[in-house]
Please model this.
Amino acid sequence: MSATGHDDHGHHHKETFITKYIFSQDHKMIAKQYLITGVLIMGFIGIAMSLLFRMQLAWPGESFPVFEALLGKWAPDGVMDADIYLALVTMHGTIMVFFVLTAGLSGTFSNLLIPLQIGARDMASGFLNMLSFWMFFVSAVIMVISLFVEAGPASAGWTIYPPLSALPMAQAGSGAGMTLWLVSMAIFIASSLLGSLNYIVTVLNLRTKGMSMTRLPLTIWAFFVTAVIGVISFPVLLSAALLLIMDRSFGTSFFLSDIFIQGEVLHYQGGSPVLFEHLFWFLGHPEVYIVILPAMGIVSEVMAVNARKPIFGYRAMIASILAIAFLSTIVWGHHMFISGMNPFLGSVFTFTTLLIAIPSAVKAFNWITTLWKGNLQLNPGMLFSIGMVSTFITGGLTGIILGDSTLDINVHDTYFVVAHFHLVMGISALYGLFAGVYHWFPKMFQGRMMNKNLGYVHFWVTAVGSYGIFFPMHFVGMAGVPRRYYENTAFPMFDDLTNVQVLMTVFAIITASVQLVFAFNFIRSIFYGKKGPLNPWKATTLEWTAPQEHMHGNWPGAIPHVHRWAYDYSKTHENGEYIIPGQDFVPQHIPLQDNEEELHH
Model:
């Protein structure tokens, strides 16, 4: 760093504050922008919403001053209005799925790691990368603005099914709030496509010498395949959103037919709301894997580093990522088993859905085998990785029930579904995200380390709290309690379950509170964190060879060449000595030694 606080790039001109921190084209800075906007800002908005509606579910009809303070006219005398409950559920789902888990995870780690781990100076197009972030930022701002619209934000559920989303007069949240939702999502999808195309081109074209596809770390495979799924499936949601805008504003009838309002027949005919379901879920199911695959890649990397062992079944892991990507595009119908689809078609979707359990199980078994007899370093990143395997397995088991059309009909649209996808997608992806933040924090912030003890507090309270929220929810769902109802007092048979709602809400408040510990640890460590060595985890991948002081271009001299795969941990000669004496890992840029064979993984 020079005396002025700017990086001295040699051949680069001096950067101003605006070109370095705001309109930056450096992938490392863009990764931080995604992390802070997507996870710290949008994440806390999404969590706050979930606490509000959980309080309403636990204590229906009670008056809370916090409701009146935050919701204003939607909570007269502190009692939550039914319309705003639906809107909070809708916005919570939208923000967490798209803005936190999709953009926060892929945007942060794909940007940070792809150039560093493949040995590239930057992304293929720095300008497109910057544009991608700012479109994401604009879409996030529009989504937040929609919370303050007079008639309230969108409230047709995060799946925005017509006719609630297609008729502006249907309910309070079908007006301007819904229009802003659609505009925000259109911009978000454009941002995702720009980012994904950039990631794909960078991985295919900018790998350093010796970095073949079979020497890539599993993180890069996961980010690459995630980007491919995004390019294939996101445009379908864009088309659905545009057709919905036309139905709302231009009198078309793509998704509407035979609508009656208070006895009056509207002029719409010929459309089909089920068509919208097909378009939505054709993105919606691959979206689940767009969220979870980056977390899987991060967990594979963090686990191998902290088990001091090569990842088990490297090629099987790649094959399972590719299988998941392919299968994710042919299972969308399992969200629509009760939409009146042909039972034969239901059985086809049941088959493809159950098939996707195979590559998922391959990954789970390979992670467990990687841990087996490893020299485990149980730092916070490793704990979150192990936690992710736990929630992925427990959440995935209930997916077998929901993937079967005959069983699904009984628990469809109950809390059983909510419990399933929060564990298998939401909590698992968040664990992957946290593992990545703890692991690569020193790479993001000039060698500073996060506080380990605060990390342990964060992990254990989150792990116990997450199961405390979502495990009882399975039983509430099996008892038949429907999701998205703002109170169940009209159904006397559910009265006994109110105590379970209270229990889940108490766990939710505790779990949300401990995220403040993470935020404190994160922000404090940026400025006051202890400085660690260049390679604090003793990892083999290329990013730890780049200097701690950030520079545009990543490496000051020549880019290191690659001579081996990414997982040479605890590798020994025939006589039992480590390849590099006294060091249980061999970085990728170290040439093969005499009489050393490259592992056939």
